Amino acid sequence: MKKSILFGSFLFVLMLAFSAAVSADETNTDHHFELSQGFSRIENSESFYLNLSAPQLSGMANEEEQAKLNEYFRSVADSVSKEYEADKSYFEENFEGEEMPHFGYEYTYDTVTDSADHFVFKTQIFYAAGSSMSVNEYWTLDKHSGKVMELSDLADKERLTEIKAMILDAMEQENESKDEEVFWLDDENFDIAFSYIEEFHHWYVNEAGNLVITFDKYEIAPGAYGEIQFEITGDKAVLIKDEKYSFDLYVGDTIEDADVNWYLKINVPVVAGLADKQTEEAMNAHFAEVASGIQKEYELAVASAEENMVGEDGPHFGYEYGYEILADSDDYFVFKTVAFFAAGSSMTSSEFWTLDKNTGMPVRWEDVVPEDQLQKVYDQILDEMNAANKANSGMYFTDGDTLYAAFGNVPAYHHWYLNADGELVIAFDKYEVAVGAMGTPEFTIK
Questions:
Q1: For the domain that residue 376 is a member of, what is the CATH number?
Q2: Distances in Å between the alpha carbon of 314 and those of 310, 325, 341?
Q3: Is the dihedral of CA 18, 24, 29, 32 positive or negative?
Q4: Based on the number of CB atoms within 10 Å of its own CB, is 56 exposed (0-12), middle (13-18) or buried (19 or more)?
Q5: Is 35 in the same domain as 126?
Q6: What are the per-10-residue average pLDDT scores of the chain (446 residues)?
């Protein structure tokens, strides 16, 4: 009787762990960015006008970085406002009547790209006084990490050198085709402008996922050509650098206890190297929480056993928690965490984690198995189970709602992974879909 109580308690701890796993998994959801109007000021007169509309960004993973960015937009708006006031004051003091110059200042924003992977917007300072001048900045955000991207995230120095040469070639061809100097190539204008593309935010990722290099009006050509953009296509279009993310998995805290009748052995996993530190922290917090829950359950079991045993006549049991690396391929780093309980019979429960070396993030279930493919995956598993039962090589629970319920829990319980060949594997805990003799069944999806 005592054994069954211990076994049931262990299952309860695992259910709590699974609940925490769902919370940790929610951090992998793509970020949704929104732009709203922050600071605003509009002023119109017969000779002057001002239109300030600083953007307010929300949805970034790091709220501190988001606050700094929004403060930057406000500071630019303040700077434009002060410049407007200074020029307005100067003209009002020195001109009157029909001699009064006409000018206007603007600071505005606009969404450029909103794709599955990126959210891009630009801010623009616009000056009008007879002729006009605009200064643009572009901001590319990664929806998977929730971060503002840097140009160095997309192209290293060697690739930027190649891109520079490609743009120069395009400019020369344009000049030759029109038999006129469309672009200024005889001086240092282009070299200077290109050296500042990262600092001035003169680049972004478009809907096609290609890098676009931009130049403001008058930077590399006469004002009649306005802002000039070059989309990087062909063999230079690949944005991701050759270097991939490298993950580290190691033991954090070690918790051990041993007696004649029972033992505890916990190696708390710690993962490092993810692109998004909040996701990394959430995963490690989850591992620590599971370990803590198992330790508390062990301590309760020990207290109960000591209270009821006579001499050395008491239950024998053990609790373990650790991890195992399953794959470390060119594209994926895969590991599982294992909670094990033994008391006469045993119980094993695992969670699987697939990290993408290209994105630096955990692979998401919905990206691997679209909703319209769920039934096909379920049907394959059921067919394999029925075939094994018919051949007397399996003892699976295929009647009733057992498999249906277990399959529904696969994403929330992290009961899936991508193997070294990139194939989807569905895993079930001991007793979940079969008798204990079947261990922990796994099915590779074709």
A1: 3.90.640
A2: 7, 36, 17
A3: positive
A4: middle
A5: yes
A6: 42 46 48 91 91 94 92 95 92 87 93 92 92 93 88 81 89 83 79 91 90 92 90 61 78 92 94 91 95 94 86 84 93 94 87 91 89 90 91 85 86 92 91 87 90
Distances (CA, A) of 318 to 53, 257, 346, 428, 432: 64, 10, 9, 22, 21
Q: What is the pTM of this model?
A: 0.54
* Helix 2-26 × helix 277-308 angle, to 10°: 170
**How many structural domains does the chain have?**
4
- In terms of residue numbers, what domain contains 160? 156-238
State the Cα–Cα distance between residues 326 and 145, nearest whole angstrom.
25
Give per-residue burial for 292-327: e unless 16+ CB within 10 Å, then b.
bbbbebbeebbebbeeeeeeeebbebbbbbbbeebb
CATH number at residue 296: 3.30.565.40
Rg (CA), the chain: 31
| Dmax (CA) of the chain | 108
Distance CA 141, CA 61 (A): 10
β-pair type (103-114, 48-58):
parallel
